[in-house]
Amino acid sequence: MSIRGRGLVAALLGLCLTVAPGALMAKDRLTVDLVNEPSSLDPQVQWNPDSYFVYRNIFDNLVTRDDKGDIVPQVATSWKYLSDTEVEFQIRDDITFHDGKKLTAEDVAFSVQRITDPKFGSPQLSQFNKIIKAEATSPTTVKLTTDGAYPALLAQLVKLSIVPKHVVEAVGKDAFNLKPVGSGPYKFDDWQRGVQVTLSANPNYWGQKGPFPTAVFRAVPDAATRVANLQAGTTDLAVTLDSDLAAQLKNSPKAKVLSVLTERVAYLAMNVQKAPLNNPKLREAVAYAIDKEGLVDGILGGYDKAVPQMLSPAHVGWVEGIEALPFDLAKAKALVAEAGPAGKQEIGLLTSPVYDQRVVQAIQQMLREAGLNVKIEMTDMATWLKQMQSGPDVIPQMAFSRWSCACQDADGVLFPILHSSSGWANANDKVIDSLLVEARQTLDEKKRLDAYRGVHERVRTERFIIPLYQVGIVYGAAKGLQWTPTPNESMFINRMSWKD
């Protein structure tokens, strides 16, 4: 063998030696490939998936859901209704934050007060603004008061992370986001912007401890690269795979596919305050032009399920009997023609790399076939979020979106998207506003469903948004990773395990 040949062999052997230790350390380090880096590690700011996947492991919530979907205790051990508008929570007395300070009822009350303060400006405000008072009545007791009866309270509190009052007040909002302190099963270590976030297991965690000493969440925008990393064994879990990429893992010796129908609903958002979609005929044309079954079966591989309303069967508030407009290209074309010059105006379709661009492009093509002049506009997720939650003057003409409240209750979906008080909404419809308020302030289940039926029928009539499908989330996982995905898309590392 030539010197050059021996050098090549040596280089390859050296490469093997550098990769092998990483493979052997797979049980000690969990590596997760996200689409983007988190836009926030402060749990009371954003709750988009790439942020939520990470910070939910750093923080404990007041209550949580188990893998069956039932609401169960976490920071709160129990709760009772003192009246229709007052709920008292008993708080665990054995929880410490990552800095060693004890978690008390004051921290819980502070966390509620913080996220419900309009000056704080949380995009989650509409999820919690029925809470008008939070007070610690003892070191282990918190009382929440709501503005009227609020049936979705516990479902919303599933998302309420408890932050340390002493840290937030000492360092401020911006510094806390860069170096968060929680009480969860994993502690924040480092955030290499644009690259990865590193967490380490909390050895003093009061509950089920994390099985991996280290967890790394990497920003890997290209889905094919996420799959390649799984195939190479350098990634243990990859999010947001499409059906084509999932098929590549079916016979992989190192990876497998995990999927679940979630509470997330894909929809087409339309700004009805901006031309040309302030024209009802064009919105109706859009509804007729989209072939939902074609999207689900032809592009998404059957992992998803078409829906006629802006909810999924996983939500409380799903109403049977709601029908969507059928796919009818001829009617769509006729409506566009009836709209005259408005039908020829350019419409921007906002999207972000986190979304399946095959779907976005298919929607664009469907709308173009109906005669609409639709142009895709790509932006990063942080910019997408800023535009979408800034009110009708800023919200784009049209956007592809997927919505999950992580609460599995209709209030967490319909109120922020449709009520005129929300930065996400632009419908400004008094009928819908009234029905949404009615639904969120009665404990009568039938009255709630009747109100939501009215909302769904109004949306169907006016086409403020176009519900598309219940999202089936597809993950790629290393063969040895044991984990059951849930409809609320929580990625609890301490509920995972490794099997050789």
Structural class by helix and strand composition: alpha+beta
Total strands: the figure is 19
Level of helix content? 25-40%
Q: Output mean pLDDT.
A: 92
- Kindly estimate the percentage of residues that lie in beta strands according to DSSP: 15-25%
Output the number of helix runs: 17
Largest sheet: 11 strands, mixed
Straight-line distance between termini: 39 Å
- Please tell me what the overall shape is: globular
Pick out the low-confidence regions: 1-26
Radius of gyration over C-alpha positions, nearest whole angstrom: 24 Å
Describe the structure.
With 500 residues, the protein is of the alpha+beta class. 33% of the residues lie in helices and 23% in strands. Strands 1, 8, 9, 10, 11, 12, 13, 14, 15, 16 and 17 form an eleven-stranded mixed beta sheet that branches. Strands 4-5-7-6 form a four-stranded antiparallel beta sheet, covered by helices on one side. Helix 10 (280-289) packs antiparallel against helix 12 (329-338) and helix 16 (430-440) packs antiparallel against helix 17 (445-462). It starts with a helix and ends with a strand.
Structural features:
globular, alpha+beta, four-stranded antiparallel beta sheet, eleven-stranded mixed beta sheet
Describe the secondary structure blueprint for this structure:
Blueprint: H1 3-24, E1 29-34, H2 49-55, E2 63-65, E3 71-73, E4 76-83, E5 86-91, H3 105-115, H4 125-128, E6 131-138, E7 141-146, H5 153-157, H6 165-171, H7 173-178, E8 186-192, E9 196-201, E10 214-219, H8 223-232, E11 237-238, H9 243-249, E12 255-270, H10 280-289, H11 292-299, E13 305-306, H12 329-338, E14 346-351, H13 357-369, E15 373-378, H14 381-388, E16 398-403, H15 411-418, H16 430-440, H17 445-462, E17 465-478, E18 481-482, E19 497-498
Parallel strand pairs: 1-10, 1-11, 14-15, 14-16
Antiparallel strand pairs: 2-3, 4-5, 5-7, 6-7, 8-9, 9-10, 11-17, 12-16, 12-17, 13-17, 18-19
Helix pairs in contact: 8-9, 10-12, 15-16, 16-17
